[in-house]
Amino acid sequence: MDDEPHAPSQIRFAQAAPRCGACTRQGFACQSPAMPNGRCRMHGGGSRGPITAEGLARSKTSTRTHGRRSAESIALKRQMRSAFVQLRDMVRATNAELRETEALHRQMLRRLGR
Ligand SMILES: [Zn+2]
Questions:
Q1: What DSSP state is assigned to residue 70?
Q2: Under DSSP, is residue 39 helix (H, G, I), strand (E, B) or coil?
Q3: Which range marks the domain in which residue 14 is found?
Q4: Each residue of 6-57: pLDDT tens digit?
Q5: Cβ within 8 Å of residue 50, ≥6 positions away
Q6: In angstroms, what is the span from residue 39 Cα to ligand 1's centroid?
Q7: Are 20 and 38 in contact (CB under 8 A)?
Q8: What's the chain's Rg over C-alpha atoms?
Q9: Spacing, Cα 45 to ligand 1 middle (Å)
Q10: What are phi and psi of 85, to 5 degrees?
């Protein structure tokens, strides 16, 4: 058994990997091993989103974590809101009518001297 973590041939193979080459903050070319996109793990850049039609379709379904902003849900919310406004107006109208009736009732009681 040898104590070497990697065989010399493996080290040579790793060192032969293409380099990133991105311009570092020190002004030098980055020497880290490049990924398939040509840049290292630190200079790979952010994801630009799905590229293939399949990936886009998958993304569209997978990013929907809840249905709170789906077209169906928005339509339902509008319906609920308009029903609420209608009910609120009915309650307000009924309350106004009730106040009028109570005022008339009080007037009548006063006239009758009670
Ligand atoms: Zn790099």
A1: S
A2: coil
A3: 8-45
A4: 777 777 777 888 999 999 999 999 999 998 889 998 998 777 788 899 988 8
A5: 56, 58, 59
A6: 6
A7: yes
A8: 37
A9: 10
A10: -60, -40
This prediction's pTM: 0.41
Question: What's the 28 CA to ligand 1 centre distance in angstroms?
Answer: 10
Tokens of 84: 């609420």
Cα of 27 from ligand 1 centre, angstroms? 12
* Tens-place pLDDT, residues 49-89: 888 999 888 888 886 677 788 899 999 999 999 999 999 99
When divided into structural domains, the chain yields a total of 2
Inside any domain, residue 112? yes
Query: What separation in Å is there between the alpha carbon of 52 and the centre of ligand 1?
Result: 26
Rounded distance from Cα 10 to ligand 1 centre (Å): 22
Phi, psi angle pair for 76, to nearest 5°: -65, -40
The answer to whether residue 95 sits within a structural domain is yes
